[in-house]
Write a structure and sequence with these properties.
about 500 residues; mainly beta; 5-stranded antiparallel sheet
Length: about 500
């Protein structure tokens, strides 16, 4: 029997100690090394190459684990089933598809390891067969940091397994609509590449569950489909909107000749443009959304980004229109909001998803906010048989209501978008993260071994729309920020109009 050398014993003890006390820091460091991203305060890769680890076996015992926070992040796609009142889905913009079977009390990821992209832009459950679920990948609420997708996925077992169903070059899918009586007849509204022209834009149709597709509506490489609805009373009637848009991370061009509103009376075989019908705005049009009332198929709404923008309504199936509401709250920040959803039973009730969830009970003439647990609203599914039951998607994830929006379920699931992560030099070290549209800086109160099932506890440090968290590495008492500074010992929060110098921070720490 061979005897281990003293150096090898020390190496094993070192590895064991590192794994027990700082698994996440090592994992983060390893990620930085393999991706070539320089650590904070270090020269860029162009000036100094990051050395590879001397011994890759040092990282072999490490395992990834979630440390939270257990809170939701942005969702722009939700769906439910009239046949299964406790079953809902929501798509996370960075975490695949999530499902609940207990009415929103608990949620679980159902696509991990089965998708080639992570951001869900659309989800639809077949009304005639709720085991059939379709996913459209890629974001169409065009922030400057959206993630593209890789087409359509289909599940035939209520989300347990998934198959890719083509349209990979669409990049961003806004809507999926399934025929109410045929789960294999499906329509897709594809916006296309957010950052460049491409031909795979417009409306697609499949009659075989996505095995093959027909490109049934398009208007060139710069305008894509951003909304699509089926008239529930006559599924051969469809409405679609196209949006000419061009995105850069720092700039957006919205509107042009490609933006248009269309109607089909034959299931998508042919289309009639409604854009310049009497009553609709003149001039350049930007993004548009559309909804048809299931209670009255002649009543159609469209929400329009234009010089004379706002909510328009037709009571003759789109032949003529009236500008019913110009309130800027209904069409503010159109590239990110603008969607509208009609109540399935009441022709006078309409929802507008914007910074607030707005509800009208007089055909769109006036609106009142529906109280919710989070702002920035993107999608709403209402049970066609029971309008009191609904699931809504916002920047905090998905919420479920069974009383028409008077109360909602919580958003306790780990889908928060983490834009930036930083660690301190304390022991145990603190972790700060900057998520989208939520409280930003947070810290764990203790560090667990890598195999622990316990989640780290998090506490609020900073709140702002800005995503950069600045830590004084040698004096972790202070968390600096572009707007405010938080003292985590005294819990004092004050404006920080200037960045705090390292010398001043050290002095403040020594004498404070």
């Amino acid at each position: 029997m061979s005897t281990a050398s003293p150096s090898s014993v020390r190496d094993v003890r070192t590895i064991r100690t590192l794994c027990e006390h700082a698994p996440i820091r090592l994992a983060l460091a390893f990620t930085l090394l393999v991706t070539g991203v320089p650590a904070a305060g270090q020269p860029s890769a162009r000036r100094q190459a990051v050395p590879a680890p001397a011994d890759s076996a040092l990282f072999d015992p490490l395992e990834w684990r979630s440390i939270g926070p257990n809170r939701g992040g942005r969702s722009i796609a939700v769906a439910g089933s009239a046949a299964r009142p406790n079953e809902y889905f929501f798509g996370a913009t960075g975490g695949g598809l999530w499902k609940t079977t207990d009415g929103g009390t608990s949620w679980g990821a159902v696509t991990d390891g089965q998708l080639r992209s992570s951001s869900v832009g659309a989800v639809a459950v077949a009304p005639s067969g709720p085991d059939v679920v379709y996913l459209g990948m890629g974001e169409t609420q065009l922030r400057g940091n959206v993630m593209q997708g890789d087409g359509v996925y289909r599940s035939a077992d209520a989300g347990r397994t998934w198959q890719q169903r083509g349209l990979e070059d669409t990049h961003a899918i806004a809507r999926i609509r399934v025929h109410p009586d045929d789960p294999d007849l499906v329509y897709v509204a594809a916006l296309g590449h957010p950052f460049a022209p491409n031909e795979a834009r417009g409306v697609y149709r499949s009659s075989d569950g996505g095995a093959t597709w027909q490109h049934i509506l398009n208007r060139g490489p710069r305008a894509g489909a951003v909304d699509l609805v089926i008239d529930p009373s006559n599924p051969r009637v469809l409405y679609a909107t196209l949006w000419e848009v061009y995105r850069r991370p720092w700039q957006l061009w919205s509107g042009g000749e490609g933006s248009a509103l269309f109607k089909s009376m034959d299931g998508g075989d042919s289309w009639t443009e409604l854009t310049r019908n009497p009553g609709l705005p003149e001039g350049v049009l930007g993004k548009m959304t559309v909804a048809v009332s299931p209670a009255d198929p002649n009543r159609v709404w469209t929400n329009i980004e234009a010089a004379d923008g706002g909510l328009y309504r037709s009571d003759d199936g789109g032949a003529t229109w009236r500008h019913v509401n110009a309130d800027r709250n209904l069409w503010q920040r159109a590239f990110y909001f603008l969607r509208i959803v009609a109540d399935p039973r009441d022709r006078e009730t309409l929802y507008v998803l914007s910074f607030m969830l707005e509800k009208s009970t007089d055909g769109g003439a006036s609106f009142t906010p529906v109280p919710t647990s989070h702002a920035d609203h993107h999608d709403l599914w209402i049970d066609p048989q029971n309008p009191q039951r609904m699931v809504e998607g916002n920047d905090g994830g998905a919420i479920v209501s069974v009383n028409g929006g008077r109360t909602w379920t919580s958003q306790r699931y780990a889908t928060a978008q983490i834009y930036r992560v930083a660690t301190t030099d304390e022991f145990p070290y603190h972790v700060c993260r900057g998520p989208a549209g939520q409280h930003h800086g947070v810290r764990p109160e203790r560090c667990q071994p890598p195999r622990s099932t316990r989640r780290l506890r998090w506490g609020l440090v900073l709140r702002s729309r800005r995503r950069r968290e600045r830590r004084h590495r040698t004096t972790p008492r202070f968390a600096g920020h572009l707007l405010r500074r938080f003292d985590q010992y005294t819990h004092a929060l004050r404006p920080a109009h200037r960045r705090i110098s390292r010398r001043a921070a050290i002095s403040s720490h020594r004498h404070g």
